[in-house]
Amino acid sequence: MRTSWKVADVVALRDETPTARTLRLRIPGLHGHLAGQHIDVKLTAPDGYSAQRSYSIASALPGDELEITVDELVDGEVSPYLVRGVSVGDQLEIRGPVGGWFVWRADDPSPVQLIAGGSGVVPLMSMIRAHELAGATTDFRLLYSARSREALFYRDELAALSASPHLRIDYVYTRVAPEGWHSPAGRLDAATLASLVHPIAADPGVFICGSTPFVETVADWLVADGYSPDRIKTERYGGVGERP
């Protein structure tokens, strides 16, 4: 069930890549949010035309603030404004947080495998931040497929978090690999996936987010390898996207 529309204040902005920006919003009456939830954002033109899009929450903040990270779509109706046009002090019409299935809760003792394609890392980053904030000792792994190092969201924060004894981060670069990287650039394949994720015996909870082709392909590989479909949760962002 969707909540009613509210007015949120833009209190901070941060560029993540040349085409992606994180917006911190203050929402009156908000009392925290779950890791993996999303909000709807609605823009209304002077002539009354409106467009709305859903954006995953990236943060694990208590209280009345949350963050979303928006990747600009060249032909988008909402994302170009959020990435290029919004300023601190502006207000946005939002609805949410929404969602109770694609979420991680700190009281879950299972190891967790996160698999991200491109901007699909956003809700998974919320889970990583919630894991760190809770001081959880469950074994977290993130497999992050991105076009290049420059395309990584939260690059510096993830580099710092990689020192955590309870978080392992693996990257696959599909277009351009960093100089000296251990393997050439190329799409994620079934063999690489199998070598990097939690073993079946660990019975991990799996969260996959990315374009529809990416999510479907990776989920199919995992099921074919013997992972239980009941332990795999998926989230897809709009657009056709590309395969792993």
From TrEMBL:
Alphabetical list of SUPFAM superfamilies matching this protein: Ferredoxin reductase-like, C-terminal NADP-linked domain, Riboflavin synthase domain-like
GO molecular function: 2 iron, 2 sulfur cluster binding; oxidoreductase activity
Keywords: 2Fe-2S, Iron, Iron-sulfur, Metal-binding
Protein name as annotated: Ferredoxin-NADP reductase
Keyword set includes Iron-sulfur: yes
Source species, domain of life: Bacteria
Essential cofactor(s): FAD
PROSITE patterns cross-referenced by the UniProt entry: FAD_FR
Residue span, FAD-binding FR-type domain: 3-104
Pfam families recorded: FAD_binding_6, NAD_binding_1
